Amino acid sequence: MTEIKNSTYKVKGRIWIEINNEAFIGEGKALLLKKTAELGSLRKAAAELNISYRKAWYGINKMNKSAESPVIILKHGGRQGGIAEITPFGKKILKKFEAIEKEFTTFLNDKTKELKK
After folding, report:
1. What's the angle, vertex CA 101, arms to CA 99 and CA 106, rounded to 5?
2. Range list of β-strands (E), 16-117
3. HEC string of 79-112?
4. How far apart are CA 63 and CA 53, in angstroms?
5. Distances (CA, A) of 76 to 2, 11, 34, 93
6. Radius of gyration of the chain from Cα atoms?
7. How large a percentage of the chain has pLDDT more than 70?
8. 88 with 107: CB under 8 angstroms?
9. What does the domain layout of the chain look like in residue ranges?
10. Residue ranges of the chain with pLDDT lower than 70?
11. Can you say how many angstroms the Cα of residue 25 is from the centroid of all Cα atoms in its chain?
């Protein structure tokens, strides 16, 4: 193989988990789950991630409907708004996705190093 000397080359990729041939969780939804769990509010998580509440709600609702068990329970609130609780299933799927993503990143980095050989 011919050596590639330009250090700007980098192997990139994206992963996601599908359910019934439809995207279930990828980087964006994983970040939304994590922020929602951290802040206890889907509205606050959406604001911090600079996405609309509607888009965030739609993403979580779609996940909840397609999974065997909800990932987040949304509870409507009064003056101060509702709360959002990540479920045990949500924690499990987030942890599994993050582990897969970490392995995938290692793979991509290794392949990038191979380009430079």
Report:
1. 100
2. 16-19, 22-26, 72-78, 81-86
3. CCEEEEEECHHHHHHHHHHHHHHHHHHHHHHHHH
4. 15
5. 61, 44, 20, 24
6. 18
7. 90
8. no
9. 22-115
10. 1-7, 78-81
11. 6
Instruction: State pTM to two decimals.
Output: 0.84
Per the structure block, which two tokens stand in for 113? Answer: 């190093």
**If you count them, how many residues does the chain have?**
117
Specify the 3-state DSSP secondary structure of 61.
helix
Tokens standing for 65?
Answer: 């409907």
Contact 45, 28 (CB under 8 A): no
Amino acid at residue number 91: K
Q: Which fold has domain 22-115?
A: Arc Repressor Mutant, subunit A (1.10.10)
Given a contact cutoff of 8 angstroms between Cβ atoms, the answer to whether 25 and 11 are in contact is: no
